[in-house]
Amino acid sequence: MPEPLPFDPIARAGELWQRHWPDDPPDVHVAMRAVTSIMRAQQILLAELDGMLRPFDITFSRYEALVLLVHSAQGALPLSKIGERLQVHATSVTNVVDRLEAAGLVRRVPNPRDGRGTLAVITDEGRAVAHEATAALNKARFGLGAVPDADTERLFEILRVLRLDAGDFAG
Question: Fewer CB within 10 Å: N-end or C-end of the chain?
């Protein structure tokens, strides 16, 4: 891991932004720093979560699919439903399910309700991996151990407003 910078590069970018666009309202400067921080936090969290999941030979996106299947009534969902719930493109779902299937964590079966569709069905091994991986992620508070509980809840609420405005779900 590289040495930490002696300054906050996002705060510095905010200062430069303000110098180059001094007529922008202050909320624009704050928004630029906030969105840049969110994007960097996403990189940090994804790397940390994927690192925690490496011993289980899965990535966070594969973990999300496994947990979705664990939580489903029959341990099976149509691929289209997985994409809808995880809010990812069908190609991404296919890739995730391909990898999980190759690892023996899910299997594909024809959808009895839709002759053209396919179900992803979690295997016993997939359930075990999901259970063990969840224990590891819970222990690390999903990578948010440095953030106090009250701030984590507030962070969720703040980002929920953004997701609601984007149309991710109906309020």
Answer: N
Number of domains forming the structure of the chain: 1
Tell me which residue range forms the domain holding 134.
9-165
Whole-number average pLDDT of the chain: 94
Q: Is 61 a member of any domain?
A: yes
- State the Cα–Cα distance between residues 154 and 7, nearest whole angstrom: 26
User: pLDDT for 13-44, tens place per residue?
Assistant: 999 999 999 998 989 989 999 999 999 999 99
Phi, psi angle pair for 18, to nearest 5°:
-65, -40
Distance CA 116, CA 27 (A): 50
Q: What local confidence, expressed as pLDDT, does residue 171 receive?
A: 77
Residue 160: C-alpha distances to residues 17, 64, 138, 145, 167 (Å): 27, 18, 21, 20, 11
Give the pTM: 0.89
Tally DSSP H helices, then E strands, for the chain.
7, 3
**For residue 19, what is the domain's CATH number?**
1.10.10.10
Residue 53 gets the label, from left (phi > 0), alpha (psi -120 to 50) or beta, of alpha
Query: Within a domain: residue 4?
Result: no
As given in the structure block, the two tokens for residue 91 are: 């190609």
Q: Is 103 part of any domain? A: yes
